[in-house]
Amino acid sequence: MEKPGTPSSEQSDKAKKYDRQLRLWGDHGQSALECAHICLINASASGTETLKSLVLPGIGAITIIDDVKVTPRDVGNNFFVDSDSIGRPRGEVALHLLLELNPDVRGTFVDQPLDEILDNQPDFFTPYTVVIVTCLPESTLLALSKVLWDASVPLLIVRSYGMIGYIRVQIEEHTVVESHPDSEMPDLRLDRPFSALQKYMDSLDLDTMDNKEHSHVPYVVILYKSLQEWNSQNGEPPKNYKEKKAFIEMVKKGMRERKNVEPEENFEEAIKAVNTSLVPTSIPSGIQSILNVAASITPSPTTKPFWIMARALHEFVTSEGRGVLPVRGTIPDMTADSEKYIKIQNL
């Protein structure tokens, strides 16, 4: 007899199944997806393709509202109906095939005209996370949009015309605290080091180190030392290509030449990191605009967590932050001895 799966084994199986998307939006994003209940109005080709892209990653539940029957035209353009289903309820047929894609997803079908639901069941859409609409006449769409706006339920309108199409979204203010940027510059603060970091890096003397220690100094220290020397000669950090090229030559001069020994890897890392590490410390305009709004907010029990965080961030920037954001708290991997790397990481 097969033993029932434990929660940990189930979690492990789910992690394997959804591995790629978990890397994209993490546990919180997957949890939000699995708790969502999506309503699709009209199981057209565009509608079923949209649902497919939600069923595969594991949406919690779907409901299809569609009161039409499958026609030969549907068979020609909709992957989720077939010739045997002609004359049957289109939403029911599409739902059955969609649920076959992922047994984790629950689904229901409503064979009722949308106008009838709007007239007789105004609270019908309240439980849904998002309502997706395809192929609706404008008058019905406007009536639906008003009902959803009053219920604070997002509306997604999908329409396709051959090889082109559009998506329209109706939603109230949507705030995100946990973002996943495509790329992140390392936040090393070399142009504006905070006092503890500056004190530590000033305490290190590259000239008095032996060869082994010299080749294991974290490259952030190398860049800091080189930047101090550059600033003493030029007054400000390198900005353009020509200046950064000259700065790289300055970094190279700090490498120790030893016969039959590979170049110091930490200095090579420093040279490669010049363009990403010497970025001026500033607040991006998009974040600054949020902080400007947050400055006028007085937090209350009804304030969204996003704006409470933004208000706190504004207060930090204007006080101990000295006009800049908090240090991100992570540093890149570096060729370095453990003691110095961990020290900088802790700082």
Word description of this protein:
Residues 18-175 form the THIF-type NAD/FAD binding fold domain. This is NEDD8-activating enzyme E1 regulatory subunit. InterPro entries: ThiF/MoeB/HesA, ThiF_NAD_FAD-bd, Ubiquitin-activating_enz. It holds the Pfam family ThiF. Keywords: Ubl conjugation pathway. By secondary structure, the protein is of the alpha/beta class. The chain has three domains: 16-170, NAD(P)-binding Rossmann-like Domain (Rossmann fold, 3-Layer(aba) Sandwich); 195-281 and 325-346, no CATH class; 285-318, no CATH class. The chain is built from 16 helices and six strands. It has helices spanning 7-17, 19-34, 45-55, 72-77, 90-100, 114-120, 138-150, 195-202, 211-214, 219-234, 241-253, 265-272, 274-277, 285-294, 305-318, 338-346, and strands at residues 37-41, 61-65, 106-110, 130-133, 155-161, 164-170. The protein has a six-stranded mixed sheet with strand order 3-2-1-4-5-6, with helices on both faces. Strand 4 (130-133), helix 7 and strand 5 (155-161) form a beta-alpha-beta unit. Helix 10 crosses helix 12. The radius of gyration is 29 Å and the shape is elongated. The chain starts with 6 loop residues before the first helix and ends with a helix. The mean pLDDT is 91.
